[in-house]
Design goal:
The protein has 358 residues and is of the alpha/beta class. It has one domain: Aldolase class I (TIM Barrel, Alpha-Beta Barrel). The protein is built from 10 helices and 14 strands. It has an 8-stranded parallel β-sheet. A two-stranded antiparallel sheet has the order 1-2. Strand 11, helix 6 and strand 12 form a beta-alpha-beta unit. It is globular and about 55 Å long.
Length: 358
C-alpha cells in the first residue's frame, strides 16, 4: 500500500496540488527539428497531467543551449505556440506545467545545433564523452570558454525563455542547474577554471546560478520559479571534489538561493542525507527530492522522513499515463521499454495502455 502521505494536498507557489506526486523532467527527443513541441508531445504531457505538477524535459533557452537532437526550445514564437498547446492539454486535465530551462553548455556537438557553432562552457575543457549526432556517435569537441561579458547574454537568454514560457501559458519554470549541464559546469571545479568573477571561489562559481535565478524571479515571479541541483552527481564528465568541498559549495548556493523565496528546490539526490537535511533547514518553501532506483514502496520515503514535500516520479511516469490511479489502487504498473526512450514516434511514448484499456 502506498504511503498515505502522498495523498495530502499541498500549496506550491501559486498552485494548489491535490497530492504530493509530480512528473520529473526527462528528455525524450520528440520535438520538431526546429525545437517546436510536436503534437506527440501535446498528447504525452496531457496523458500524464494527473501527476499534478508536470516538470517538462530540458528545454533550451537559445541555440547555444541545445545539446541533443529534437529537444524543444522556448525562445522563438514558434516554440511559444507549440508549448501553448502542451499547456492547454495539461490544464484541461487539471494539471500544472513548469517548463525546465536547460542550457547544455559543453555537453553538445555542432551537428546538433541550428547554427553549428562550437559549444560554449565556463572553460575550454571537453567532457570526455561522446554525443549522438545525425551522422552517428562522435566525440564531443572542446568547447569555447564564455567571455565575462557573454555571461550577461546567457542570463538574458534565461530571462527571455522564462517570459516566453509564461507567454505560452506555463505555470512556471524550473532552472536546470544540475546533471552536468552549463550551470552545473560553472559549479564544478574540474570544468570551471576561470579566473574572473565567475570562477575560483565557491562564491564565484555559484554566481551565475544565483544571478540567473534572480533574473528569472524578477521576470516572472519567485513563486513561479523553481531550481534543480544535483550535488556530486558525476554526469557530463564532472567531478565536484571530496564530500566536504561539495557540502561547502552547495550549502553556500542553497543558502543564497533561499533568500530569493523561490517556489521550490528540486534536489537530484545521490545519498548525502546530511547535506539534504541542511537544505531542508534553510529552504523556506517546497523541497522536491528525486533519487535513482526508488521502488514503488519507497516513493514517499523522503516525504515521510521530512526531507521533502513532493516526490517527482521518473521512469514510472514514462510507462504509466495513469500512474496516480495505479498507485491509489495498488494496480500493477507497465514496464518501461528502454529501446524507445530517446527519439522515435508514439511507440513507447504515447501508446502505453491505461488501466481502462489494459
Amino acid at each position: 500500500m502506498t504511503s498515505s502521505s502522498l495523498w495530502t494536498p499541498f500549496t506550491l507557489g501559486r498552485m494548489q496540488l491535490e497530492h504530493r506526486l509530480a512528473m520529473a523532467p526527462m528528455t525524450r527527443n520528440r520535438a520538431d527539428v526546429d525545437g517546436t513541441p510536436s503534437d506527440l508531445m501535446v498528447d504525452y504531457y496531457g496523458q500524464r497531467a494527473g501527476l499534478g505538477l508536470i516538470i517538462t524535459e530540458g528545454t533550451q533557452p537559445s541555440a547555444d543551449g541545445q545539446g541533443y537532437l529534437n529537444t524543444p526550445g522556448i525562445y522563438t514564437p514558434e516554440h511559444v505556440a507549440g508549448w501553448s498547446k502542451v499547456a492547454d492539454a495539461v490544464h484541461e486535465k487539471g494539471g500544472h506545467l513548469f517548463i525546465q530551462l536547460m542550457h547544455a553548455g559543453r555537453v553538445s556537438h555542432p551537428d546538433n545545433t541550428p547554427h553549428h557553432r562550437q559549444p560554449v562552457a565556463p572553460s575550454a575543457i571537453a567532457p570526455g564523452e561522446d554525443s549522438h549526432t545525425p551522422t552517428g556517435v562522435q566525440p564531443i569537441p572542446v568547447p569555447r570558454a564564455l567571455g565575462t561579458e557573454e555571461i550577461a547574454d546567457v542570463i538574458a537568454e534565461f530571462r527571455h525563455a522564462a517570459a516566453s514560457a509564461i507567454a505560452a501559458g506555463a505555470d512556471g519554470v524550473e532552472i536546470h542547474a544540475a546533471n552536468g549541464y552549463l550551470l552545473h559546469q560553472f559549479l564544478s571545479p574540474n570544468s570551471n577554471e576561470r579566473t574572473d568573477s565567475y570562477g575560483g571561489s565557491i562564491e564565484n562559481r555559484a554566481r551565475i546560478v544565483i544571478e540567473i535565478a534572480q533574473a528569472v524571479a524578477d521576470e516572472i515571479g519567485a513563486d513561479r520559479t523553481g531550481i534543480r541541483i544535483s550535488p556530486a552527481l558525476p554526469l557530463g564528465g564532472l567531478n565536484e571534489g571530496e564530500v566536504e568541498a561539495v557540502r561547502a559549495q552547495y550549502r553556500y548556493l542553497v543558502g543564497e538561493l533561499a533568500n530569493l523565496n523561490l517556489a521550490y528546490l528540486h534536489v537530484h539526490h545521490i545519498g548525502d542525507d546530511e547535506l539534504l537535511r541542511s537544505f531542508r533547514e534553510v529552504w523556506p518553501t517546497a523541497v522536491l527530492v528525486v533519487r535513482y532506483g526508488r521502488g514503488r514502496d519507497q516513493i514517499a520515503a523522503d516525504i515521510d522522513a521530512n526531507f521533502a514535500d513532493i516526490a517527482p516520479i521518473g521512469r514510472f511516469a514514462l510507462a504509466n499515463p495513469d500512474l496516480v490511479e495505479r498507485l491509489r489502487t495498488d494496480a500493477p504498473l507497465n514496464e518501461v521499454d528502454p529501446a524507445t526512450l530517446y527519439g522515435g514516434g508514439e511507440a513507447g511514448y504515447t501508446d502505453y495502455p491505461a488501466l481502462a484499456t489494459a
